[in-house]
Amino acid sequence: MAYSERTPPPRHAQTGSSLCPAVSLLLVLFTCNVRYAACGASNIVLILSDDQDVELGGMTPMKKTKLLIGDAGATFSNAYTATALGCPSRSSILTGNYPHNHAVRNDSLAGNCSSPLWQKGPETLALPVYLSKRKYRTFFAGKYLEQYGTKEAGEFAHVPPGWDLWHALVGDTKYYNYSLSVNGKEEKHGDSYEKDYFTDLILNRSLEFLDKRSLGQPFFMMLSPPAAHAPWTAAPQYQKEFSDVKAPRDGSFNKPGKDKHWLLRQPPNPMAGSSMDFLDDAYRKRWQTLLSVDDMVEKLVKKLEDLKELNNTYIFYASDNGFHAGQFSLPIDKRQLYEFDIRVPLMVRGPGIAPKQIVKAPVLNIDLAPTILDISGSDLPIMDGQSFLSQMAPSLRSGPSRSCFLVEHTGEGSPVPDPACPKLGCGLSHCLPNCVCEDSYNNTYACVRTLVGINLQYCEFSDNESFVEVYNLTSDLSQLVNIVKKVDPALLQAMNQHLIKLQSCAGSSCHDNGINGLYCVMGCIMFNSLPHRPH
Ligand SMILES: *[C@@H]1O[C@H](CO)[C@@H](O)[C@H](O)[C@H]1NC(C)=O
Ligand SMILES: *[C@@H]1O[C@H](CO)[C@@H](O)[C@H](O)[C@H]1NC(C)=O
Ligand SMILES: *[C@@H]1O[C@H](CO)[C@@H](O)[C@H](O)[C@H]1NC(C)=O
Ligand SMILES: *[C@@H]1O[C@H](CO)[C@@H](O)[C@H](O)[C@H]1NC(C)=O
Ligand SMILES: *[C@@H]1O[C@H](CO)[C@@H](O)[C@H](O)[C@H]1NC(C)=O
Ligand SMILES: *[C@@H]1O[C@H](CO)[C@@H](O)[C@H](O)[C@H]1NC(C)=O
Ligand SMILES: *[C@@H]1O[C@H](CO)[C@@H](O)[C@H](O)[C@H]1NC(C)=O
Ligand SMILES: *[C@@H]1O[C@H](CO)[C@@H](O)[C@H](O)[C@H]1NC(C)=O
């Protein structure tokens, strides 16, 4: 196991405490930035929504959040997840590492989601552990990992290390009728809106935490609401909203995936009318559930303002993965390599971040932990991700931006035919009515996504066709045309080499200033200089 080998040497010397006050003051004046607790360490809040896309208008219903976080700080127009599935992505957010290094492959225990091996390994080196060492008071409320609290995962007694206050959902997304682990003790909830609606409960617990905080101790809060994940149960006051809204019909909506991997070539293609009704209904309900998250953000910001903490608090708003609704005739889900599933919303406000910025530099979910640790002043452990503090607050930090990255997914299947559609045989999963399946064992892929210099995606599948998909995102934002047969084989070879490096990268070798950056640049030069074959 590689985890124990990754403890890095401290990167920053501490300021001496034995110096006389005048010298200390001078030191503080010269070095005063967010890194030093001497200047009053900043509080940090991470709000992580569930399955909220950005490509299909997922931020549209969140007007207050856009105003209070986005307009008050930075909105990232190229934020991605390294993997478009809940448990692997959440594990990446917590550890700052790609799935191939935290080894969480899917949402089940067999795929290491909250498994004993995860608990013994990666979880002991996750974000709250470092923040706790940095004397932050840490608070969690919401959905943690899909298998959290199940019998095999230690039930509700397991409180992951580093958390001082813990209110975590047992199992996968629910809005009512759920159990929580409250600091290791079970708390059961029914279905009264006033007492149990999960999004509101997360907010209420957060406000209580803020009221009881100890003055002078910085805090880290992670709030992880159930929206916009199924079963899409909106608060009663929002159940009639957006009655005329439908999923957008543009781009790849209901387009066939003829030149794509096996799963996307399967019928029905185009979708049946009943699938359209189903996805439109889901699309509306998703927006309705997000209205409660929008209220949460408003009330939280207001509370921080009342407590005079707002000007010393960083607030991150992000989602674990994107989502699709009809793209390439897939009714609803995630797990695909395309932009709609891997792009996520990301907005950050806080000290040193100028308002109304649109940051184009690509950032990843694995960058959240290093960025938060950078703000906290922690000696940065080596993670696959990189701090993006310099991208949003250049006055506080300078540093290179990321130009290309890895996207990886291990497809889920079933050893027995799905009862929803036995005729399709084994190897598929998440099958919906009309016999459309959203995943299969052979939907296992890895991609290089480059954004700076060239806007390209190169993906290889572990299936028995060794299928390859390549997209020119400059000319084809909707990824309608797989150009694998049109680009120069030398470019494919370079991308293949780059992908192999990224798939085995760890820590600094995943960074853009390491070997990855070299490949990024090489790929870019080749892409721009090679003659392209005529179409
Ligand atoms: C589960 O995680 C452990 C280490 O954390 C790893 O050794 C093991 O291979 C992982 N299992 C799978 C199926 O990836
Ligand atoms: C909650 O559980 C009760 C008892 O099983 C059930 O009657 C009720 O319909 C459930 N509510 C929701 C919203 O699922
Ligand atoms: C949250 O607090 C508000 C204000 O006190 C209250 O009206 C609401 O019922 C509470 N909701 C939950 C789920 O605790
Ligand atoms: C934040 O605002 C309060 C007054 O509202 C002020 O006392 C404090 O110095 C400010 N802190 C920062 C870091 O600007
Ligand atoms: C989840 O991942 C594990 C490890 O790769 C695998 O054994 C298991 O079959 C996967 N689950 C599904 C439903 O595919
Ligand atoms: C993908 O898996 C399905 C189900 O096992 C199988 O029928 C199909 O031949 C596979 N296709 C490829 C390209 O691997
Ligand atoms: C591809 O794999 C599937 C099982 O996943 C198998 O049924 C099929 O025969 C294989 N096809 C080829 C061409 O190897
Ligand atoms: C990608 O699209 C741009 C803009 O249309 C074009 O200039 C470039 O040649 C394309 N590259 C390939 C490989 O098709």
UniProtKB/TrEMBL annotation:
Family under the similarity heading: Belongs to the sulfatase family.
CDD domains: G6S
Native organism: Gadus morhua (Atlantic cod)
Protein name according to UniProt: N-acetylglucosamine-6-sulfatase
Record lineage: Eukaryota, Metazoa, Chordata, Craniata, Vertebrata
Classification via InterPro entries: Alkaline_phosphatase_core_sf (IPR017850), GlcNAc_6-SO4ase (IPR012251), Sulfatase_N (IPR000917)
Entry keyword set: Calcium, Hydrolase, Lysosome, Metal-binding, Signal
Signal peptide: 1-41
EC top class named in words: hydrolase
EC numbers on record: 3.1.6.14
Cell compartments where the protein resides: Lysosome
One GO-annotated biological process of the protein: glycosaminoglycan metabolic process
Domain Sulfatase N-terminal per the UniProt entry, residue ranges: 42-377
GO terms assigned for molecular function: glycosaminoglycan binding; N-acetylglucosamine-6-sulfatase activity
Gene3D superfamilies: Alkaline Phosphatase, subunit A (3.40.720.10)
Cofactor(s) in the UniProt record: Ca(2+)
Catalyzed reactions per annotation: Hydrolysis of the 6-sulfate groups of the N-acetyl-D-glucosamine 6-sulfate units of heparan sulfate and keratan sulfate
